[in-house]
Design brief:
Elements (H helix, E strand, L loop, with lengths): L22 E4 L3 E2 H15 L6 E5 L3 H13 L3 E3 L6 H6 L6 E5 L10 E4 L23 E6 L7 E6 H15 L7 E4 L6 H14 L3 E2 L6 H7 L4 E5 L1 H4 L13 E4 L6 H11 L4 E6 L3 E6 L8 E3 L4 E4 L4 E6 L3 E15 L3 E7 L3 E4 L2 E4 H9 L4 E11 L2 E10 L1 H10 L1 H12 L11 E4 L13 H6 L4
Parallel strand pairs: 1-10, 3-4, 3-5, 4-7, 5-6, 9-11, 11-12, 12-13, 23-24
Antiparallel strand pairs: 1-2, 7-8, 13-14, 14-15, 15-19, 16-17, 17-18, 18-19, 20-21, 22-23
Helix pairs in contact: 1-2, 4-5, 10-11
Organism: Photobacterium swingsii
Pfam families: AMP-binding
Protein name: AMP-fatty acid ligase
């Protein structure tokens, strides 16, 4: 039975007097005493270093947690690149002064770096280091979001907003997850993984896995009643051929829309509908739901105030962003009673074709309603002197059979004819590509450039 530890806010978690043998991370059963020692040792060393902007890039979530807390307690600005690839890190090198990483992440040329765990030469002679309550408002964190173009965009946040979100997560689901441990298929380098797989478990005393689960077989093997799974639609959709082994305590999903069929299959496998969390790097979590029906509305987090602008896009006042200012999103919504809402798509996914406004989200939804189409991604394509729509689709078994029997040309024509029930001619895709999976990046977001490349011929 996993040991129960009382919840502590992020500002004071390193000051907590927890049992020395309580688990922080599993897969090698690292204990609280060791974690405090490692954080103190690294913080003491960091205080001797002049660099302010430190990039964290770790495959191992335990070393990541050590680095994150040590940097926070030494007053550094934390930079979280989105992935570990050398070329991607090199592109972001102007954002940071030094890279802090583990042995599984390569250093990059012409950039100072420090590797954890410490080598004997790098160890500080300071045996004890006094950690104080964190001044969260003064501590900064920069994350990156790919946006619609695929180009990384820097998003700066204060640790006070991060801590506020962790407090809310614990208030909603803490009792449900009591005495559980946390395993994950998502990276701690992005805000969802940072919160759900590392910082929230750390504050609540729930041990977390050091390494990601990558394959569906690993997800099934880790299932147990004392384990919570932090996952994404990209992985949950891949469980379609799996058979039940054991239930998880709970499953969370974020990073994109979870198909209703995947939600239902997760319930069949694990006795739980995944808790879907909707939000962004900029806003943190906005709402959550469990998809009892495909039209199940989203529930706002209780600390949020919302309104709609003239385009019916959500405006948000949230302690996750700023306690006083309003943040304008591009998410078109319908507000419902009891602090619930329905998502209607994004205003920045409206294109004009022959002077008509076309919602790419609407076209995708219409495609997905067809018996032949499982999932669709629609994008504008420049074709000579005109703009047209292209659709990248995955096919249902019925669609795959139709493709074999009739060929691409006749199937695409049949799809276009069906779409005429709902869409004007200019809003019907003219070009189609059938793929096994919609291309996604490490955050579970659609890769715009990869989708464009599919039409490059």
């Amino acid at each position: 039975m996993t040991q129960t530890i009382s919840y502590t806010s992020l500002a004071n978690v390193m000051l907590e007097k927890r049992p020395a043998d309580s688990l922080v991370a599993f897969q090698d059963d690292t204990q609280w005493q060791q974690f405090q020692h490692d954080v103190c040792e690294l913080a003491a060393y960091l205080n001797t270093q002049p660099q302010v902007r430190w990039a964290l890039c770790f495959a191992d979530s335990y070393y990541f947690a050590v680095a994150f807390m040590a940097l926070s307690h030494s007053g550094k600005h934390i930079i979280l690149p989105g992935n570990h690839q050398p070329a991607a890190l090199a592109e972001l090198s102007e954002q940071f002064e030094i890279l802090l990483h583990d042995d599984e992440v390569a250093a990059i040329a012409n950039t100072p770096s420090l590797t954890l765990p410490f080598t004997a030469q790098a160890r500080t002679t300071v045996s004890e280091y006094d950690l104080a309550t964190l001044a969260l408002d003064t501590l900064k964190l920069t994350l990156f979001t790919s946006g619609s173009s695929g180009t990384p965009k820097a998003i700066e946040k204060s640790l006070s907003g991060i801590a506020a979100e962790i407090d809310v997560l614990e208030s909603i689901w803490g009792k449900q997850l009591q005495a559980s441990k946390i395993t994950s298929t998502v990276s701690h380098q992005h805000i969802y993984g940072l919160l759900f797989r590392v910082l929230w478990p750390l504050c609540s005393g729930r041990a977390f896995a050091r390494h990601d689960l990558i394959y569906p077989e690993q997800v099934m093997a880790q299932a147990s009643s004392d384990t919570c799974l932090i996952s994404s639609p990209a992985l949950l959709k891949r469980l379609v051929d799996m058979t039940a082994t054991a239930p998880y305590r709970q499953i969370f999903s974020s990073g994109g829309p979870l198909p209703h069929t995947a939600a239902q299959h997760s319930q069949a496998l694990f006795n739980h509908l995944p808790i879907e969390v909707f939000g962004s790097t900029e806003t943190g979590g906005i709402g959550y739901r469990q998809q009892h029906e495909a039209t199940t509305p989203w529930q706002l987090f209780p600390c949020h105030q919302v309104m709609l602008n003239a385009e019916q896009c959500l405006r948000l006042q949230s302690p996750f962003i700023d306690t006083k200012a309003w943040y304008q999103t591009s998410d078109q919504c319908e507000l419902l009673p009891n602090n619930q809402f329905q998502l209607k798509g994004r205003a920045d996914r409206i294109v004009k074709i022959e002077e008509k406004r076309i919602s790419l989200v609407d076209v995708e939804q219409r495609l997905s309603q067809l018996a032949w189409v499982e999932e669709a991604a629609v994008l504008p394509l420049d074709e000579g002197h005109r703009l047209i729509l292209g659709a990248v689709i995955t096919l249902t078994p019925e669609g795959q059979q139709a493709l074999v029997e009739t060929g691409k040309g006749k199937l695409w024509l049949a799809i276009r004819q069906q779409l005429r029930q709902w869409l004007e001619p200019v809003g019907i895709p003219r070009r189609f590509r059938a793929v096994d999976e919609i291309p996604l990046n490490s955050q579970g977001k659609r890769q715009f450039q990869a989708l464009v490349t599919l039409f490059s011929d």
